[in-house]
């Protein structure tokens, strides 16, 4: 009781004000949690969802390009072409293969950036 009323006899006559408890600190990026959504946000609430979907689409286009390059080389090998002509066809497919691989990597980078920023 003396802690609330104070230590000296004069201060015991009037109660000392107890300061309110400090407000809870909020983390920099923390969101208020909703009981229905344990992650604290609704599906589609992130501003970067569109970036994730665009990145996935770009990555799938790159993957389709890689499959197309594999089919082109496979057809050239099955055609029993002479060595020089087979090398020429494979040489023409290599830039397409590298472009498709680069497109797929860019798509994955967009997905990662969307996840990190979302």
Detail the topology: elements first, then pairings.
Elements: H1 2-5, H2 49-78, H3 83-117
Helix pairs in contact: 2-3
Structural overview:
There is one protein chain. This protein is mainly α and about 120 residues long. The protein has a domain at about 45-118. The chain has three helices and no strands. The chain has helices at about 1-5, 50-80, 85-115. Helix 2 (about 50-80) runs antiparallel to helix 3. Keywords: Membrane, Transmembrane, Transmembrane helix. It comes from Psychromarinibacter sediminicola. This is LPXTG cell wall anchor domain-containing protein.
Task: Please tag this protein with its features.
118 residues; 0% strand; mainly alpha; transmembrane helix; rod-shaped
Give the strand tally: 0
- Taking the alpha carbons of the first and last residues, their distance comes to 52 Å
Query: Rounded to an integer, what's the Rg over CA atoms?
Result: 33 Å
Strand pairing plus helix content: what structural class?
Answer: mainly alpha
β content, as a range? under 5%
Low-confidence stretches: none
The number of helical elements comes to 3
Mean pLDDT across all amino acids? 81
Q: Sum up the overall morphology in one term.
A: rod-shaped
Largest sheet: none
Q: Into which percent range does the helicity of residues fall?
A: 55-70%
The H/E string reads: HHH
């Amino acid at each position: 009781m003396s802690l609330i009323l104070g230590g000296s006899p004069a201060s015991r006559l009037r109660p000392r004000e107890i300061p309110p408890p400090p407000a809870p600190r909020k983390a920099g990026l923390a969101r208020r949690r909703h009981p229905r959504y344990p992650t604290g946000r609704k599906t589609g609430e992130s501003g970067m969802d569109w970036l994730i979907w665009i990145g996935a689409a770009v990555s799938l286009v790159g993957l389709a390009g890689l499959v197309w390059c594999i089919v082109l080389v496979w057809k050239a090998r099955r055609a029993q072409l002479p060595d020089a002509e087979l090398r020429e066809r494979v040489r023409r497919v290599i830039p397409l293969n590298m472009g498709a691989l680069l497109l797929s990597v860019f798509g994955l980078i967009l997905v990662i950036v969307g996840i990190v920023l979302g």
